[in-house]
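Exercise (ungraded).
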Amino acid sequence: MAHWVNVPLLVIMAMSGLQIFAAYPMLGPRGQPVGWYPFQGESPPGWARLGDWLAGARHWHFAFGGFLALNGAIYLLYLVLSGEWRRRLFLPHRDTRNAVETLAFYLRIRKHAPAQGLYNGLQRLAYTGALLLGILAVLSGLVLYKPVQLGALTAALGGYDTARALHLGVLAGFALFTLGHVTLVLLHPRSLGEMVTGGRRPDV
Amino acid sequence: MSRLLIPKRRTPRLTRRELLVGAAALSLPACDSAHPRAGFLGAMERVNARLEAALFDEDRLAPEPPAEEETPPGAFPKYFISEAVPLAPRNWRLRVGGLVTRPVLLTLEDLQRMPRNGYRLRHHCVEGWSAVATWHGVRVRDLAQAVGASPDARFVEFRSFDAGYWSSWDRPSALHAQTLLAYGMNGYPLPPEHGAPLRLYSAVKLGYKMVKYLTEVNFLPEPTGGYWEDQGYEWFAGV
């Protein structure tokens, strides 16, 4: 359930975020644009934006951002309280080998999939990565929202403009994750049904 | 003999479908980008404003960036709503009124005789950019004390000669130690394109709250909106 709430919320946050970004589509403080960002001055395309104008987009972003963070917090709490984190999170010493083998299998380098439980190492890596992205999205977003009141967090993330670059980077990360996630689900259509219905309770 | 059947109460659990359809139906029609301060978006702004006010700490100071982070001359954006740079009328005065015991008209010289403060601060614009400059002038809190602002005045309104641009603030933000009526910028008298002779400057608000080309400061019992606020931008707009 928590998973599907993410879909509209993430879409709203991503699109309203791009509309906000369009008001100043550059990274780095005024007079000192950063050199490494290749799209300085280029606005995101209109179809990818929500909110019509800056004030509209900001209201969308701040109206729904809290719900997305709350949903993420509930999911984290569930992972911890249910003990599911052991099965779902990527533990490097346990999962690295399986992740590499699974990747080799997907890339047709390896003929057979490695033995796995409900989740393989690569899945665990991707889900853990998405979770870390989510945490970074919330922290960098809080810095952009309250750079002075949350001054310690602003300093920890390297300042306001660094947090702004991170916040955009998180969006790119989420876009990549979603692309991979949806591709793999479409390759295994049966899993989609289980994701919608909640599925059969797995026998551990 | 009949067996007594006790109907089991159906556990009131929402199905996924009910919840999704319900959430979509509730949220979407009330989100109008053209009127973001109304409907659901507006209700959430009021929720957020309460959180923002609770998060605001009047004793927390913004850190002052080192001198080398100062924005290069000319790169600090100039902004006004008039067609040309607004120029101060010859006998310019700042009118201070509202719920005060001593309403006054102040000349620039009067203001310069009051306690002077200066800060180098990072500016946060609603558009997303930041810039650094040094500002000096009189703290609004010193002005409030000088005119005897009533505790009932929980809001402070700032008005300008820039085509009627104005904004109103919550009192705690206006009386923050880093909220200035600035007559100087980067060690020089405030230039006309940055709000001469007097502008509001603060570490704790977004740029559009900092009214330039000031003509009036009013201590009021109610908020009075603002130029951008009335068009749809957030009223609290703290940083």
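Further reading is listed at the end of the chapter. For now, observe: The helical segments of chain A are 2-22, 54-82, 85-88, 92-106, 121-145, 151-156, 160-187, 189-197. Chain A has a mean pLDDT of 90.
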